[in-house]
Hints:
The chain is α/β, with parallel strands linked by helices. Helix content is 41%, strand content 14%. The chain has helices spanning 3-18, 48-51, 57-60, 79-89, 109-113, 117-133, 146-157, 159-163, 187-194, 215-234, 258-266, 298-314, and strands spanning 63-68, 95-100, 139-144, 169-173, 196-198, 212-214, 236-237, 243-249, 267-268, 276-280. Strand 1 (63-68), helix 4 and strand 2 form a beta-alpha-beta unit.
Amino acid sequence: MKKPIQLLIIVCSLLALSCEKEPTITNAMLDGETIFDPSLNNPEKYLISAKYPSPSAEDRAKHIIIAIHGYTATTFEWQEFADWTQANYGNDSTYRVSQVLMGAHGLTYGEFRNASWETWVESVKKEYQDLVNLGYTKISLVGASTGTTVLLHLLEDGFFNRLGVQPKNIFFVDGIVVPSIKTQSIANIVGPMIAYIEVDQSAREDTFWYRFRPQETIQELNKLMKVARKELERGITAPNGTYIKMFHSKNDPVASVTSAQLVYKGLKHADGSNVDIQLLDSDIHVFTRLSLRTSITDQQRANQLDCFRQMAARLN
């Protein structure tokens, strides 16, 4: 018997033995029945379309950037960018941040488990559509981790072209097309055996990220990444006038740097030019989120600030 097969059997056996069919969820966790993403109860504090349901001409002149979090995360993942914008520009900023909660996220473990990746995409499409309907013409997007994978699909699908208002910019932050965790590739095999994976995170983080990741959602993430890889292999062309840049950590422990390489090869600007790629000296996933991390280096702070400044410079 070959060693890879032996390893697979051992991994499957250990996972099957180590996991119960249902996790022990408390109401102190996002997974539970009490804590939900705040954008669900107060959308006007997070979504520009909800905050300005009847925008003035001055409102519509603002550049809106839709910020999309990653798998198992919530709007918290882009809160630092929103806070940085407010602290540096206040109400005089040329742009506003719209923090979108991906579909089925920020709810209970059961509701998250039962949703497909197509459901995750719907809230992103809705906010963009709502902004277009309200008369906004300057819209950009930024996706962290799986937020990037979602945006790649929307580009290939022609979603933005159908609406007639193309994004001014699209930014990718540690986008995941190929995972760094190799065992994820066998999720379809071991998934029904393990039921869920528990993540080692702090009690505070438990309120903003799911501690327990249902195997069904891991398989949905794998499906979405597979879709993105096939779309990149066929080739994706950005809409006319859309600028794209990808920021990626060189030693990302979650999203392999191969993801950036595939995006560089498979995604082009409308004029045929390559999209911009910036590899950062970083070993954390979603380097733009530093809040609640146990230790932050000067380099990590510099990476975050550099990304924020570059995005802000194009949102005029």
